[in-house]
Inverse folding.
């Protein structure tokens, strides 16, 4: 049971949590003032401290420094479950990532874990990533992870990005005492600074009065300030955007978030299926974000084109959704429903028109220079190739400009059966280009509004629920209202789902959810105890949850007493291992 | 002595684990040594109960510590300095002694007053040094003033020590107690005997008219700096309070190859103690009823006890000065900005965030 820690908001692996002390602590945060250490068992027996609701009590521990072998860890592991049960208050157990389950620490019922080998892994990207992943996948999701003696203003954003909840100011102070002046972009010898690059109160003295004692204080201030920024970024769902830039000041930090991108299983499970905020695509690393990779994967493996018309490939637009941009307006006017439209874009890949609202297609904002990196070209070409292998078109019209787009099309053209026709002279929106696009479609038949709407609903269902889901769920389908707020009804006019314009997904009704359960499409189910959820399902009420559930997913909630549908607030594994927090935001429920 | 041999102690999980790991680490080395050469020999000066004496220190190559072959102490790499196969003949041991005497003749004007013999094991263990060799060595040095021989407490007997004392040698047994805290000696150092065994050995030595010099280890693995410092202060005090233990020598741990400490250090989980900590122990135990000395090995290096790199030599000099004069005022004459860092480390370093500073 985690009684004193709760995760309130998530941004990938990073979280905003609350250490529920008498005076609650919002995490990620400094733990210096709230930790009580019952002491090491290496040098003597320790008495259990009485519980204290004002502090996080670190249970008597055997701390294994970096490099301790597993035999030794297993042999000396204390029984944290016993001591945790005896302390009435918030508790933490000291573990090592080399054997996080030693002594059954993972089931000890503590609120936090202290990583005793932190000094050995911080500073080494792959060791750090392995450590965090191993610990996080062993201990309950709603426990805080505390790394002591390692945080600096420079590294704390990356620590939080990895999923660290608690740090302290010990290292910042030690560095200050050594005359090292820390900022969010580096470390300098105090004696080399002729001017203090900071406006915290401690730094507002003449340079010659600023000594090492002041430097200690400044370092702590800088760390505090960075943590505030990190908390803000997590709330905004934009920590990754920040880390991609800030981590570049230190090689191991850049290597760390890149290594996390290689841990797709860990990061994808924690990446939400939708956010309400912009996703900044400003570096070459954005392409490897799990949100981007997942979109490309689903387009390549789940989406099917249902139009019989030719395909027109067009460049993306800065304005989102694309259809609201000026250039796409012109393309639309030229095409006049005679072709299926797909946008080529870095870093998303290929966006078929039905998915233009779907996260992150309408949320990303990239840097446009017309200069493509080889990585970008290779990525988009690969997605387009797989797209065309899966979807058959009578014709492919590439209405794309030179720089990058044309190059990609020519690469893909060689790898697929259907020939490409090129219609752009100079620029896609020149009169000549638009004229070419219009005339090349002469004689092609128009598709109806109904067909367009039905295909959109089914494409979104494919994307959300799996290959073939659109046809499985909506063999009978009627759309009402106006795009993008389409309503999906059956032949008896019962409402099944509504399209959510802000992130291009379907929100099911109970009838829609039942249809989903009855279909062949894989259902994302949260199994609950015998109660009827109103508003939300809390983690303790969850009996089981599918592994595939992601934050923001539509989920069916089933239990002996109720059937419900809603949006997941945690990923599946987190729902199973958590004892606090909202698991599902319930939209509709009924008593059975 | 009624205490059983090391093997009998090897019974609990922690010790089994330490031994298994240490055997594995030690197996990585493949050097062997010539049984006819001593491991090391050097000349120095030492503070003894009778004043400062010139000394000849001999590290005898005896085939090494039997405890180390079972796995042994987590910080000790000396086992590696022993010969392959394990046993060294009487003739070979005497060749080593001859080589030491030659070294002394080549490098000193006068024979040293004090002879110290270490074996990286137990000189009094007859499986390391046969009784025949032990007696021959006693005879060889019978004309000196003092002898120090190293041994685990198990092997200390009045009968063996009488062979030295009866020749008129002031004789001391050097016992690697490491710490007076049984839990630390057992769990961190992986040494099998108890403080009470050390006390018994002191009594046994007294029967032969010999004295005991306790060797302590500052900062075994798994202890934070402040824990290591406190452990040393209490250990010095407890040793000094034992009858017949007249000298305490505190060795700050250094990182030796093919040890558990070396692995921890390599992975970023161990830092040798600060020289300030060594100085602090000496200062704080100045009232203890014993000579208290420390001879930091490898001071100032990453693998030895060190401060910031600026002040290491000065603090080392003060420590050596203290060893001879036992006057704590020597430490008033050294200071450095890194004392603040050391104080922070004492206050903030715990077992779960060590090492907090390099």
């Amino acid at each position: 049971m985690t009684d004193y820690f709760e995760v309130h908001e998530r941004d990938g692996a990073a979280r905003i949590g609350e250490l529920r002390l008498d005076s609650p602590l919002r995490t990620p945060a400094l733990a210096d003032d709230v930790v009580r250490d019952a002491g090491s068992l290496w040098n003597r027996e320790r008495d259990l401290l009485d519980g204290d609701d004002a502090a996080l009590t670190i249970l008597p521990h055997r701390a294994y420094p970096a490099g301790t072998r597993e035999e030794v860890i297993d042999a000396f592991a204390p029984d944290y479950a016993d001591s945790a049960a005896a302390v009435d208050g918030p508790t933490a157990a000291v573990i090592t990532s080399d054997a996080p389950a030693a002594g059954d620490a993972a089931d000890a019922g503590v609120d936090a874990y202290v990583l005793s080998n932190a000094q050995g892994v911080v500073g080494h990207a792959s060791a750090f990533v392995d450590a965090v992943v191993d610990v996080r996948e062993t201990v309950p999701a709603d426990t805080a992870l505390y790394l002591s003696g390692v945080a600096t203003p420079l590294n704390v954003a990356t620590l939080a990005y990895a999923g660290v909840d608690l740090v302290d100011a010990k290292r910042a102070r030690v560095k200050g005492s050594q005359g090292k002046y820390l900022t969010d972009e580096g470390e300098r010898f105090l004696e080399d600074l002729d001017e203090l690059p900071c406006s915290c109160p401690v730094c507002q003295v003449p340079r010659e009065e600023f000594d090492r004692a002041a430097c200690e204080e400044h370092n702590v201030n800088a760390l505090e300030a960075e943590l505030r920024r990190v908390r803000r970024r997590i709330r905004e769902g934009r920590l990754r955007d920040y880390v991609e830039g800030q981590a570049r000041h230190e090689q191991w930090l850049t290597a760390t978030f890149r290594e996390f991108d290689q841990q797709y299983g860990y990061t994808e499970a924690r990446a939400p299926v939708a956010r309400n905020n912009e996703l900044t695509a400003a570096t070459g690393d954005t392409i490897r974000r799990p949100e981007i990779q997942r979109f490309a994967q689903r387009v390549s493996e789940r989406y099917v084109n249902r139009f019989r018309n030719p395909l027109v490939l067009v460049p993306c637009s800065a304005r989102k959704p694309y259809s609201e941009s000026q250039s796409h307006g012109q393309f639309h006017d030229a095409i006049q429903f005679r072709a299926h439209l797909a946008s080529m874009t870095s870093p998303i890949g290929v966006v078929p028109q039905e998915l233009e609202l779907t996260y992150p297609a309408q949320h990303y904002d990239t840097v446009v220079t017309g200069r493509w990196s080889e990585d970008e070209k290779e990525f988009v070409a690969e997605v387009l190739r797989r797209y065309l292998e899966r979807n058959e078109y009578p014709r492919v019209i590439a209405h794309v400009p030179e720089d990058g787009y044309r190059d990609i099309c020519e690469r893909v053209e060689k790898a697929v059966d259907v020939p490409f026709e090129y219609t752009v002279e100079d620029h896609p929106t020149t009169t000549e280009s638009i004229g070419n696009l219009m005339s090349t479609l002469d004689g092609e038949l128009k598709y109806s509004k109904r067909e367009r709407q039905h295909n959109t609903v089914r494409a979104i269902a494919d994307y959300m629920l799996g290959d073939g889901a659109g046809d499985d769920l909506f063999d009978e389908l009627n759309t009402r209202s106006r795009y993008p707020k389409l309503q999906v009804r059956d032949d008896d006019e019962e409402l099944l789902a509504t399209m959510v314009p802000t992130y291009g997904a379907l929100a099911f009704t109970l009838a829609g959810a039942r249809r989903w359960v009855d279909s062949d499409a894989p259902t994302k189910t949260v199994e609950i105890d015998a109660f009827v959820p109103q508003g939300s399902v809390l983690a303790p009420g969850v009996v089981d949850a599918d592994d595939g559930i992601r934050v923001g997913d539509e989920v069916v909630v089933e239990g002996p007493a109720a059937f419900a549908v809603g949006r997941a607030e945690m990923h599946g594994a987190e729902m199973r291992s958590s004892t606090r927090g909202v698991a599902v935001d319930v939209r509709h429920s009924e008593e059975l | 002595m009624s205490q059983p041999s090391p093997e009998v102690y090897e019974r609990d999980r922690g010790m089994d684990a330490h031994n298994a790991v240490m055997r594995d680490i030690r197996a990585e080395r493949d050097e062997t040594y010539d049984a006819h050469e001593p491991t090391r020999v050097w000349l120095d000066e030492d503070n003894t109960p009778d004043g400062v004496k010139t000394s000849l220190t001999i590290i005898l190559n005896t085939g090494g510590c039997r405890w180390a072959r079972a796995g042994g102490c987590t910080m000790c790499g000396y086992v590696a300095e022993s010969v392959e196969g394990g046993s060294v003949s009487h003739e070979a041991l005497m060749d080593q002694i001859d080589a030491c005497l030659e070294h002394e003749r080549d490098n000193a004007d006068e024979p040293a007053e004090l002879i110290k013999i270490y074996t990286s094991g137990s000189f009094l263990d007859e499986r390391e040094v046969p009784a025949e060799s032990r007696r021959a060595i006693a005879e060889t040095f019978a004309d000196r003033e003092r002898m120090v021989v190293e041994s685990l407490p198990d092997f200390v007997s009045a009968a063996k020590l009488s062979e030295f004392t009866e020749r008129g040698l002031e004789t001391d047994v050097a016992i690697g107690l490491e710490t007076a805290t049984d839990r630390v000696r057992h769990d961190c150092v992986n040494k099998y005997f108890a403080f009470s065994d050390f006390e018994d050995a002191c009594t046994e030595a007294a029967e032969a008219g010999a004295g005991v010099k306790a060797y302590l280890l500052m900062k075994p693995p798994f202890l934070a700096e402040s824990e290591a410092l406190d452990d040393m202060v209490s250990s010095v005090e407890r040793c000094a309070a034992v009858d017949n233990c007249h000298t305490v020598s505190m060795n700050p741990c250094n990182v030796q190859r093919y040890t558990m400490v070396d692995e921890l250090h390599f992975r970023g989980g161990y830092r040798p103690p600060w020289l300030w900590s060594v100085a602090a122990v000496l200062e704080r135990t100045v009232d203890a009823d014993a000579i208290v000395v420390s001879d930091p090995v490898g001071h100032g290096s990453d693998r030895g006890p060190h401060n910031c790199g600026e002040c290491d030599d000065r603090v080392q000099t003060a420590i050596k000065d203290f060893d001879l004069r036992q006057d704590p005022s020597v430490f008033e004459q050294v200071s450095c900005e890194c004392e603040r860092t050391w104080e922070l480390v004492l206050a903030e370093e715990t077992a779960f965030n060590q090492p907090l500073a390099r």
In short: The radius of gyration of chain B is 19 Å. The interface with chain A takes residues 13-14, 16-18, 20-21, 181, 183-184, 187-188, 221-224, 227, 231, 260, 263-270, 308, 337-338, 340-341, 344-345, 348-357 of chain B (CB under 8 Å). Residues 1-10 of chain B have pLDDT under 50 and may be disordered.
